[in-house]
Amino acid sequence: MATTRYYLALDLGAESGRGLLGRFDGRHLTLEEIHRFPNGPVRLFDSLHWDLPRLFDEIKVALRKAASGGAKPEGIGLDTWGVDFGLIGRGDTILGNPVHYRDPRTEGMIELACSMVPRERIYEVTGLQFMPINTVYQLLAMKQAGSPLLDCAETMLMMPDLLGWLLTGRRAGELTDASTTQLLDARAGAWSDELCEGLGLPRHILPELIAPGSVLGTLRSPVAEETGLPADTPVIVPATHDTGSAVVAVPAAGKGPGSAPDWCYLSSGTWSLMGVEVARPIITEATYRYNFTNEGGVDGTSRLLKNIMGLWLVQECRRTWARSGREYSYEDLIPQAEAAPAFRSLVDPDHPSFLPPGDMPSRIASYCRDTGQPVPDGEGAFVRCALESLALKYRWVVERLEEVTGTPIATIHIVGGGARNALLNQFTADATGRPVLAGPVEATAIGNLLMQARARGRIGSLAELREVVARSFPVTTYEPSESGAWQDAVGRFGALVPGRG
């Protein structure tokens, strides 16, 4: 009889976090959610922050629940969103709560950085998409504001590394999350001294880098005593950037990362991250023009992808309606969207006006008026506008991925929470003219757990890991339907998308 091994995934997203216990018998993985908690920004004066002490306390609750359930995990793995960080000063002092990536402090920082180091050179070194939320622009904003925290800092740790340090006491930076900073030399896999010097940023605060699948350390004695887990429980870094873990769990077969696969992934949630897994970064004039990004993957691979605003548009619409007393679940809104007129209004999901939190319906309405389109009429029309626009943006990205890799993309794998959105999945198949395979929903946690199992020698190659995913979790297939209306919409949408997309 096969021995069942236990692993604990701590998966933190921008809206919620979970502790999931994974049971692995060598062929199949099963999941049990043992703790869930809300997450979100906290406004202090004029700044948005993450509540680090509360997040760490919730993590310890998950550890206690795992211990009380009688399972002895072979590993604990932690993943979060990218770009955000905390600073540590002398004597293990935490220098303030981490600032949320949607905080407006980075306005104008891309332009400032490009006046110090040419934009083309920044991209040539990092291969990273220019987005105001990137870590480098957050640090530059602190420098411009004369923040005393930079002067006091010994170490900068990205969010998963910061939480890992609180668990183990070790300061280290996992590579996939470090690659979201726009301070990493993509080809060398090392911090860029050139960019730190050119932008006047403190190189000494950047930590040592470790690869996904490494053991960060074991639980600090106070954490072990407080949670009831053994002090020798290893904390293993998966791909700590949540998208990196999600891509690990794409149940795809076929061409591997030797050149470019004949499938692409779409990690669908608050953000949509769409791309291909390649053997090395692709940094060319075309990827620069289209503002594609190269982020680190497992086994030395690179994730060539595009960050797209994603279901944030719908989430912020729901929050806006809820503030006025109109509470809608997704189950309420999807039938309304299906009943709304098709292709009445389209938006570029990545328009800068949609990035900050706030009144999203008003912003969509303003965008439509500014582009000479009808304003959506009712909640269902707003949601349909967002979903159709996302599907058309996915087509735009797929076509450019094919161009820059020279490889046709036959299939789209959708993983993450958005895999539940049957309407968006069908729209994606129809808009792109390609089959969509949706699932698993819990891809990030699955990739986290199975990378831990691999680190403990229970799984071999990445291909074997993906076979475990395919055996363990079902997928739903959406076939494209023939529709001239989608082809007509492609031209309208193309006129809305700037050259960089």
UniProtKB/TrEMBL annotation:
Its EC number(s): 2.7.1.5
Entry keyword annotation includes DNA damage: no
Gene Ontology terms: biological process: glycerol metabolic process; rhamnose catabolic process
Molecular function in Gene Ontology: ATP binding; glycerol kinase activity; rhamnulokinase activity
Start and end residues of each Carbohydrate kinase FGGY N-terminal domain: 6-248
Start and end residues of each Carbohydrate kinase FGGY C-terminal domain: 265-455
Gene3D superfamilies per UniProt: 3.30.420.40
GO cellular component, one term: cytosol
Coiled-coil intervals, chain numbering: none
Superkingdom of the source species: Bacteria
EC class of the enzyme, as a word: transferase
Pfam short name (any one): FGGY_C
Protein's UniProt keywords contain Transferase: yes
Record's keyword terms, sorted: ATP-binding, Disulfide bond, Kinase, Nucleotide-binding, Rhamnose metabolism, Transferase
Entry's family note: Belongs to the FGGY kinase family.
Name by which UniProt lists this protein: Rhamnulokinase
Protein source organism: Tautonia plasticadhaerens
